[in-house]
Design goal:
CATH class of chain B: Mainly Beta
Number of strands of chain D: 11
Low-confidence stretches of chain B: none
Order of helices and strands of chain D: EHEHHEHEHHHEEEHEHHEHHHHEE
Shape of chain B: extended
Strand order of the largest sheet of chain B: 9-7-6-10-11
CATH architecture of chain B: Beta Barrel
Strand content of chain D: 15-25%
CATH topology of chain B: OB fold (Dihydrolipoamide Acetyltransferase, E2P)
Low-confidence stretches of chain D: none
Strand content of chain B: 35-45%
Mean pLDDT of chain B: 96
Structural class of chain B: mainly beta
CATH superfamily of chain D: Thiolase/Chalcone synthase
Oligomer: heterotetramer
Largest sheet of chain B: 5 strands, antiparallel
Radius of gyration of chain D: 19 Å
Largest sheet of chain D: 9 strands, mixed
Largest interface: C-D, 64 and 74 residues
Chains: A alpha+beta (176), B mainly beta (155), C alpha/beta (382), D alpha/beta (393)
Order of helices and strands of chain B: EEHEEEEEEEEE
CATH superfamily of chain B: Nucleic acid-binding proteins
Distance between the termini of chain D: 24 Å
Chain lengths: 176, 155, 382, 393
């Protein structure tokens, strides 16, 4: 039967290994500007602060910041410092690294809805960050106790900070 | 913290090096391409042939580039072709002058649709469109278009 | 049938580097200007859909479609990406409006080549991985030079003609608005340049620029509500090349030929030489506009017509009269929109002298750079 | 977006074709594209020379390992010398290709269009195709945290479980159903008879995601032939009409919004329903193929599409409503969980399935009840894109 009628030619792992192939090692490197908003954000992290932008029209606060409000389409240049504290809106326990290598102990990561003094946000739009969560156990995740838990940024010592997201080591669960 | 409306000084702008890579891509050549590369590995330059419309073509594909029927055949050719167009590289991508200019040409073959882009080894002053050439194979071959080291003029 | 029109344009950048701004901030600036130019439209309530033309390997982000909406004011709106030249986005927007289902479509495109550190490898990644890439030539533009050689030999176009084109275009660029690379050169200086990849010298390649361009396209009926200063898109068509470049005839521009036939048919153009007032053509590599001139049958003898200045500002067939990509720089997929912006400004009378005040139709052309011959043509008219 | 009373030209689908979906195929991206196109054309009774436009889609270039890959694979669809462009909305691409195809035909610019989607993930062989997903994040912020792809879906799944009170057992039922449905699909890669137990006992990757909650890595291509009404009448007595299209994209700031409910999908669906004149999707949609790269996504998407009340999709699944012989068959093809997930091709496979279901040509996969209106949907980017197409007999 013709190949197209069969729908193609499957290869097993073994066959794939043996068969003739061409190989390319990609070299795709970039030097990216953080631009206006992120540069202020990173400078803030270096100084131990979480900085966002504030839209005067709709009241939304953007963390990470933007110099425009995507909803009102206005230019933003009001900067606000938000708390380095907040609560967990979701969290998971990862047994794999970025390169998909198996980890011995699961790493807990989550999304943190950050506090802004004097403001409340719905669960639909809020300033939030993805980060590692420390001081929580696998059981805290599985039992969903981690949801709504209060967490606070654990900062690297100021001399080790470089002005990137890893200046925050993790968000640590505040024991009550 | 007080800020200007915008940052203008360059030292306040953060930059990050980043990449979009994996270790390596491995490309298979398809049912006909694989057989064609195997032939190259044996030092033979073949062409694909469409049984429906008779088109003989290079590079080989599972489908005929003329009538889009399925292709299953390879045919031997002498390997003698001619230069359809060429270029000479005098400077590399980094802007350095080449110690020895490299000629790249599109080589076509009588009666064959398509052709091959490859190196030609000759004096850049002597090269011309229409010049007849043939492939020179490497000693160690692996089943790649690069098994042909270059094409050389037929005296 | 709804007539699609260009209602507004905005851009930022067109500089060798724009390191103070993240690309999304540049797009915001371009979008804000475009919406204002369109009569003050509100992206949230007045726009039906948004489309971005871009390619991931230029961005350094896999699936960069993710990052399209916010800076366009397009969050929770119909938004999509075409991995192609920005004139293909115009084609798609044109079709959306003609379908009757959409009234206002925003097209965005951008390029930030100043942030790409490994351009050579990226260009090589765009070639066939089995039959071309393994040659790994010392200069990846050699494949473009194969075409330049074939075209020039077959049509007996000499090096001086190419030089004349380049020199003239760089000078025309001095009158344009977005041209960091415009300059005064003479043909003698061009002829002294060494070949980089024969028959092309470094003057034959547009240097890189960063830019973002946003264009608002609308049906004529709806456009009228916002502004009466719009420009019609009379026709647009795109024709794909093949990545097996050896299947093609490199001596002529097959894609432009096919696309022109279709676009002239759509717009009822019988005699392009008489009916089209200005040509905005892709010149990111200098032999390409000459191939296009041939394919459009604008000239029997390109050497002679270049010598006579027919393609200059005062000629009867002005090509890129305010400079093309050689002057403004190669802005990657945004190139097609850069041509459109020039045409829009000329037709509105906001760019150039009275010389062009009677121009009715402008042809714009963009070809995918660097490895594909895929071509898109459009006719803009008053 | 106006309703379809303003649209003059009706658009029909008259043929569909698929390659096998497999972890590895020998064929090149061009050849895979050709196989799917050839099969779709054969069903339509057409040849490549009859086609005037090719609209294609494919997910990231970083899978195939070809920059500007649309320019590369389009040759296999006969794109050379014809109109072709490639659309790309991440995982939502597969369903978006016929959406773009719809307006190319509805506008009258194209009469006979080939709609094709291709993905060759196996080329990204070293270390693994999944490694490509490192590059989908904001490179300056999230990528610096060393995330893997499963993080974000696990975060969304867990938020959904928490908000809606859905258990892992409830979710696993989807995987069990879809993999079983795929046993009847000739192209399927991951068809299996498994139990909820098997899913729960499979390796935990990122809690709450286990290995059997996820669709596999695949090579594959899919194609449709999409034509204007007059052409359709000439070629077939049984055309399937495009009744509605919808698409919508939320903010890239995915950590700044509610993940338990896909608002963007509701908006995409509303756009399509409005065009198709559908007011009560739960009653008016007879069969649906929502996007299921993970099992929870089927439930999540049913709710976004209005095919289940919010937080109630798991209940419908438990009651058997979504089985092939149920009241609202969901993913009768076997979905991505069962047939496989060559990203863009998987989305288009879903549209092909609805086409075959409405024609009554789905063979052993044919749903029990009579079907007149069907829906296919895909999803992607940073959990922010919804693409929806509604077909009608």
């Amino acid at each position: 039967m013709s190949i197209h009628k069969l729908g193609g030619t499957p290869l097993s792992d073994e066959e794939f290994k043996k068969i003739i192939k061409e190989i390319t090692r990609p070299n795709a490197k970039y030097l990216m500007s953080a631009g206006q908003a992120y540069s202020v954000f990173f400078e803030g992290l270096r100084r131990g602060k979480i900085i966002g932008t504030y839209c005067e029209r709709c009241g939304m606060i953007y963390v990470p910041p933007k110099i425009f409000c995507p909803y009102c389409f206005t230019t933003l240049d009001k900067w606000v410092e938000v708390a380095d504290e907040g609560k967990v809106v979701t969290a998971v326990a990862s047994y794999y690294s970025a390169n998909m290598e198996r980890l011995k102990e699961p790493q807990i990561v989550g999304i943190i809805k950050l506090d802004v003094p004097g403001r409340t946000f719905t669960s639909y739009r809020f300033p939030g960050l993805l980060h590692r969560i420390c001081g929580a156990s696998l059981d805290d995740v599985v039992s969903q106790r981690i949801f709504d838990a209060r967490v606070k940024a654990r900062w690297r010592p100021s001399e080790e900070r470089k002005g990137d997201i890893n200046d925050i080591e993790c968000f640590e669960v505040i024991k009550t | 913290m007080s800020y200007m409306r915008r940052i203008s000084s360059l030292d306040k702008i953060y930059h990050f090096k980043t990449e979009m890579e994996i270790n390596a891509y491995h490309y298979t050549a398809g049912p006909i391409g694989t057989r064609w590369l195997e032939a190259l590995k044996n030092g033979e330059l073949k062409v694909a042939k469409c049984n429906k419309c008779g088109t003989r073509f290079l590079p080989p594909k599972l489908y005929c580039p003329k009538c889009f029927s399925e292709v299953s055949e390879l045919e031997s050719i002498s390997g003698e072709g001619y230069i359809d167009t060429y270029s000479v590289i005098y400077y590399n991508d980094s802007g350095e002058r080449m110690s020895e200019p490299v000629i790249i040409a599109l080589i076509r073959f009588e009666g064959i649709y398509g052709g091959i882009i490859h190196r030609v080894k000759t004096d850049p002053k002597k090269i011309r469109i229409g010049m007849r050439v043939k492939p020179v194979f490497r000693r160690d071959k692996k089943g790649s278009i690069d098994d042909i080291e270059y094409f050389q003029p037929i005296e | 049938m709804s007539q699609p029109v260009v209602l507004g344009i905005g851009y930022s950048g067109f500089q060798p580097s724009t390191s103070h701004y993240n690309i999304r901030e540049m797009i915001y600036e371009a979008a804000a200007k475009a919406y204002e130019d369109a009569g003050g439209i509100d992206p949230g309530s007045d726009v039906d859909a948004f489309v971005s033309c871009q390619e991931d390997f230029w961005e350094g982000i896999s699936i960069n479609d993710e990052f399209v909406p916010d800076q366009l004011g397009a969050v929770l709106k119909p938004v999509y990406t075409i991995s192609g030249d920005s004139l293909q986005c115009v084609l798609s927007a044109y079709s959306m409006i003609r379908s009757g289902a959409f009234d206002v479509v925003v097209v965005e495109s951008h390029g930030k080549p100043s942030e790409i550190l490994t351009m050579r490898d990226m260009i090589l990644m765009s070639y066939d991985p089995i039959y071309i890439r393994p040659l790994n030539p010392e200069n990846v533009f050699v494949f473009n030079a194969l075409e330049a050689k074939a075209f020039m030999e077959y049509n007996k176009i000499d090096r001086e003609a190419l030089g004349r084109y380049v020199v003239s275009s760089l000078r025309k660029g001095l009158r344009g608005r977005r041209n960091p690379y415009a300059s005064i050169k003479n043909v003698e200086a061009y002829l002294e340049e060494e070949y980089v990849v024969e028959p092309l010298t470094k003057l034959d390649f547009a240097p890189y620029s960063d830019a973002a361009v946003v264009v608002v396209i609308a049906s004529e009926d709806v456009a009228k509500k916002f502004s009466d200063e719009y420009i019609k898109i009379s026709g647009v068509w795109s024709v794909s090349g093949t990545s097996s470049i050896v299947y093609d005839d490199l001596r002529e521009d097959t894609m432009t030929k096919i696309a022109a036939r279709k676009v002239f048919d759509m717009t009822g153009i019988k005699d392009p030489v008489r009916e089209i007032g200005v040509f905005e053509i892709d010149e990111r590599i200098s032999h390409v506009p000459l191939m296009v001139i041939k394919a459009l049958r604008l000239s029997e003898d390109v050497n002679r017509d270049l010598m006579m200045g027919r393609f200059d500002e005062e000629g009867d067939l002005p090509v890129n009269p305010f400079g093309g990509a050689l002057s403004e720089g190669n802005v990657l997929e945004a190139h097609g929109l850069a041509r459109l912006v020039n045409a829009y400004e000329i037709l509105k009378g906001s760019l150039g002298s009275r010389r062009y005040s009677d121009v009715e139709k402008i042809l714009i052309h963009s070809r995918r750079w660097p490895s594909s011959r895929t071509t898109t043509l459009a006719i803009l008219s008053r | 977006m106006k309703t379809n009373i303003h649209v003059k030209n009706r658009v029909a689908i008259i043929g569909a074709g698929l390659t096998l979906f497999r972890r590895r195929l020998l064929e090149t991206p061009q050849e895979m594209t050709w196989i799917a196109s050839k099969k779709a054309l054969e069903q339509a009774g057409m040849d490549f020379k009859d086609i005037d436009c090719v609209i294609s889609g494919s997910a990231p270039d970083t899978f195939d390992g070809v920059h500007m890959k649309g320019e590369y694979y389009s040759e296999g669809a006969g794109g050379f010398g014809k109109l072709h462009f490639r659309v790309f909305v991440g995982g939502g691409t597969g369903v978006f290709v016929p959406i773009a195809g719809w307006w190319m035909v509805a506008s009258g610019l194209c009469k006979k269009a080939l709609i094709v989607a291709e993905e060759k993930m196996s080329s990204a062989a070293d270390p693994h195709p999944q490694a490509v997903f490192r590059h989908i994040w904001d490179p300056l912020i999230e990528k610096m945290l060393g995330p893997n792809l499963i993080w974000i879906f696990a975060l969304e799944m867990h938020r959904y479980m928490h908000k809606c009170g859905v258990s892992k057992e409830d979710i696993a039922l989807v995987s069990v159903k879809n993999k079983a449905n795929a046993l009847d699909h000739p192209c399927a890669q991951a068809a299996a008879k498994i139990s909820v137990e098997d899913v729960l006992k499979s390796e935990v990757l990122v809690y709450p995601v286990n290995r059997l909650d996820i669709s596999p890595v695949s090579d594959g291509a899919a194609a449709l032939v999409m034509v204007s009404e007059d052409v359709a009448r000439r070629y077939t007595d049984n055309p399937i009409w495009v009744a509605g299209i919808g698409f919508n994209l939320d903010s890239y700031s995915w950590t700044n919004r509610e993940l338990a409910y896909p608002l963007y999908l509701k908006k995409a669906a509303d756009m399509a329903y409005k065009m198709a004149g559908i007011e009560n999707p739960m009653k008016q949609i007879d069969v649906a193929e929502p996007y299921d790269p993970f099992d929870y996504k089927e439930l999540h998407h049913m709710e976004g599409l209005g095919l289940a009340p919010r937080c109630k999709a798991a209940e419908l699944t438990k009651e058997g409503v979504t089985q092939r012989d149920g009241d609202l068959p969901i993913n009768p093809s076997g979905g991505l969980l069962g047939v496989g997930n060559p990203i863009a091709a998987a989305g288009l496979m879903k549209v092909a399935e609805i086409f075959w279901q409405l024609r009554g040509e789905a063979g052993r996969r044919q749903v029990k009840k009579p079907v007149y209106t069907g829906l296919a949907q895909a999803w992607g980017d940073l959990m922010q894109v919804g693409t929806v197409i509604i077909l009608r007999r």
